[in-house]
Structures are given as C-alpha cells and as structure tokens.
Amino acid sequence: MDSDLSDLTLDCLIHVFSLLTDNDLINASGVCKRWYEAAETPWLWRQMCLHRWSFCNISRCSSENGKRSWKSYYLQRSSLEHKMKTGRSCTDYTCKSLRGHTGRVVGLAYLQENRHDSDNWERPSIVCSASSDGTVRAWNVQQGVQLWSSPVQSPLSGVVTDPQREAVFTWDTSGVIKAWDGCTGQEVAAFPTAASKCKLLPFSADDQSALFVGTSSGAVCMLAVPSLSLVWRQVLFQAFNIDILISSPDKKWILAASTEGADCHPQVFCSRSLRCVTEDDPPLGQSVPVSCCLAAIFLASEPPRVAVLHSDAFGYQTDKTLSVFEITIKKSKYKQEVEVQQVESFPLGLTNWHTDVHLQARGAATFVVAAGNHLRVYTLKGALLATFEDHTEPIASFCVDSFRVVTASRDLSLRVLTWKKERDAGLSLESRFHLLGGSHTRAWGFTHVICDYKSIVASVEARDEKDVLKAYSFNA
C-alpha cells in the first residue's frame, strides 16, 4: 500500500492525509520526501485547527525561524490543552504562592488575561486582588511577583477591572469607590456612595466607558470614567441591596436585581438608553416576572436571553427554578417598549441543604450550577447532563469558559473539569484532576477562583487571617 501511495500525485496524497489524525500526519511526514511535502501542507493543518477549535488566529503562536505556521499553532495549542487536561504537577503546570496581604482577600479580577480568542499567549496574565487589609495589589501570575500595591486605606469589599482601559475599581466598607491606574497603581479618582454595600459593573461600548454602581439603598448610579463623576442616579428597589449587576455579552443589555426582597423583580435595561438618561427620556427597560431571585446570567445568544435562578419564596424548604427569558424591543410609530418573554423554565431539584447556589453558563444552551459540594450541568431544556461530587465540602466559587470548569471548595482543593463535544451525544463535561491549596493546619479553604486560558488563580483563607493567592500556570 505504501508503494501505491508513493505513486499518487501531491494533491491525491493531501486528500488521503486529510483523513489522518495529528499523530499519524506527523509520522507520515517522516516516510519520504514526497510524503513530508504533503504532510507539511498548510491547508491540512489549517483544516485540523478549524475542525478542533471554533476560533483560530495564527498570529498568536510562536514563530519557527521567524515564520508562523498552522502546524506550529496546532501543536502549541493542543499541547497546552493536553496539559490542562492531565494536570501533572511540575510537568504540566507550575504553582506559585502570592503573599503580601495581611487580611482577608475579598475579590479577584484579571487586569490582563489570555483568552482563547486573544491576540497572543505569550504575554503574562495579570491579576488584581483586594483585601480587608485596605490594599489592592497587582500580580504577574507566571512570574509570581507583585507589580504594585496601593496605599493602605479603609478595608476593601471588592475589586473589578476594565482591561480595555487598564483600569481597576475598588469599593470599601464605608461605600467609597476608587479608580486606580492598572499600570502604576496610582489612585485616579474617588466617589463616595454613602452605601454600606456596592456592586460594580465596568462598561465599555461604542467608544464610551462608564462604571455602573448598584447600592445597598436600591439605587443604580452611572459614573463617568475615569473621573468617577456622577452622571445619573435612579432608585430601583426601595431599601433593598442591589447585589446582581451584569451585562449581556454584546453589551446591549444590563440587568439589575436584588436577592433580598421577595417582591423585587429583576430589571433589564437597554444599555444605550441608560447612557443617555434624562428627566424627559427615562431608560428603556422592563421587569423580569420572577420573585426571590438568587442568581442571573446572560446567555451568548441571538436574540438576547437571560437566565434567572429563583425560588417561589424565601426559605430553606423551597425548591429552586431556572427560568430563561428572551428580550426584544417592540417598536411602534411613537415609542419603543422592552418585552421580556419566558421561553424555558425547569426545577433544579435543590432543597434545604443548598442555601448558597452559584450559576454560570457555557454558550447559549448549557448551564452549570454549584450547590453545596455538588456541581450539576443542565441543558437549555432542563435535562440533567451530569452531576459531580468531587469535593467533600461546599463549593465556594467556580468559573466557566469554553474549555473548562474550575471549582474552588472549602476542602482546600480546586477541581478542574474539561468540556468535550461528543459527535452523537453533544456537549459533555469530564472531571480531570485536583489542585491542592496547602495544609488545613494553616488554612480554612479556598474562597475565590478565576481562570484564563493559561492560568488559574485562587485565594486561600488563612487561619492567621493573612490570605494567600495560589497561581497555577500552564505552558505549551
């Protein structure tokens, strides 16, 4: 058969080689000069890349002799993903402990992240952490070094970032919001809210940046960036804390909700109308017809959809329901109206033993729910795809992207799970390996976790109240 193949034209060889796996293609290139020429054809490796990944950018990969190729792109990315699947200590990843905080870590956010659809994988991941010690700090994840630290101030309550503007925003226990230069750590501006709690949402669209703020008094504010000057303020929920404030992937919609009031229906607004609010022209919005909201997430869908996790009433004995709503704008001759229509709703089967419930989504049709030490995967129609009980204590935080799910638990371990597309069964999730955070003699457990395409960063609650960050870096 080899002799028969050797007589084929180059085009015929390329066609035959298109049926091979990557390993078979590499082996074929070593048979003879003719096979090498066919196996090195860029078209073959490009097709292999596009078949495996929905988004590919050859400019991101390292060059060989000054030249980038689809083959090198495929080999680098598949090597990186293989290491993220096997998780062998020292072989697939390195772990660094980031120390410096003298209080509890209350929030983590990437200031510079490596996304699967970003420009390159060679730049470092930069993470910002906020602490009750009154400082916000920036860290180089791969090098394991602190880049800068803010001066000590009031105990912080959280941190968010705007990577596009290289800006960092914090809020403290007295309700003061501050903006920081992400490159230098210098304070840029401050805004007092007089609220005991805040929820921040950095927003950039149409070359316009803003910071939306939800407060414990039930108001939503829009602040100009970077000055943090007040643009407008509107009360949505009287005396109830706004603790959910999210935007849709396309930045066209914003949802605000409270998990405190049984009669506080989530409110969804057209973001364009929020940026030009006047007394004569109120924001274009509508309430979502559910009560007792627990969590919410926008789906990457068209038309836009939002999923809301809720219950019929507050209390331990009530089951939780996940409802999906489609958002549209109805236009008439004289006005526009937002319509919110339910398209799916199903019970999750979570009862009194699951008080803290976390919700994330992958794409437009898959939900991941964490409750207690359980992780569950549902379809848009409510079918339960999988249940995982890898942890021995409750899941405190988890993150989801197009490649994997990472859970952080009070049992002082992270669990890494990866997505897999089955040809007949569709999307599935596979549990891979644990990442350990240290000893229980020194720590209570993990509290927060975030991840990008090359790294995982999580905070460990220390018994001496000097929390530590664990940074795991995967390299191709």
Short summary of the structure?
With 476 residues, this protein is mainly β.
Distance between the termini: 36 Å
Mean pLDDT level: 86
Which band does the percent of strand residues land in?
Answer: over 45%
State Rg: 25 Å
- Poorly predicted runs of 5 or more residues: none
**Helix/strand/pairing class, anyone?**
mainly beta
What is the tally of helical segments? 7
Give the % helix: 10-25%
Strand order in the largest sheet: 1-32-31-30
Main β-sheet, in a few words?
4 strands, antiparallel
In total, the number of strands is 32
Shape: globular
Question: Explain this structure to me?
Answer:
This protein has 476 residues and is mainly beta. Helices cover 12% and strands 46% of the residues. The chain has helices at 2-6, 10-17, 22-28, 33-39, 42-52, 70-86, 271-274; strands at 93-98, 105-112, 126-131, 136-140, 145-149, 156-162, 167-172, 176-181, 187-192, 198-205, 208-215, 219-224, 230-235, 244-247, 253-257, 267-270, 285-287, 293-299, 305-311, 320-331, 336-347, 357-362, 366-371, 374-379, 384-388, 395-400, 404-409, 413-422, 426-436, 443-451, 455-462, 468-474. Strands 1-32-31-30 form a 4-stranded antiparallel β-sheet.
Give me some keywords for this one:
globular, about 475 residues, four-stranded antiparallel sheet, mainly beta, about 10% helix, 32 strands
